[in-house]
Amino acid sequence: MITPREAELSGPVPLLIFVRHGETDANVAGWIDHDTAGESLNARGCQQAQAVAAYLARDLRARRKRERANLSLALPSFLSG
């Protein structure tokens, strides 16, 4: 286990988010699509993609806002949650 001081010195930890593709007519039908390009998203899949993009944009803005607040308070990021 690392100490808070070691965590502070190690710098920010990159955030990696995996998002599975949205719905396609092929996956609704239960088909396994091995084509590299894959099938295009259907209407619901497009809505899913737009929803996750909006969620991630809000989350990113909130993270940046917290980081700026932490800098102004000179708090290590691991203390701010």
Low-confidence stretches: none
Distance between the termini: 18 Å
User: What value does the average pLDDT take?
Assistant: 79
Largest sheet, described in full? none
General description of the model:
With 81 residues, the protein is an all-alpha fold. It has a domain at 20-31 and 39-81. The protein is built from 4 helices and no strands. The chain has helices spanning 4-10, 25-29, 43-73, 77-80. The protein starts with a helix and ends with a helix. The model has no long low-confidence stretch (mean pLDDT 79).
Please describe the structure with a list of short key phrases separated by commas or semicolons.
58% helix, 4 helices, 81 residues, single chain, mainly alpha
Please outline what is shown here.
This protein has 81 residues and is mostly helical. The protein contains 4 helices and no strands.
Give the topology, please:
Layout: H1 4-10, H2 25-29, H3 43-73, H4 77-80
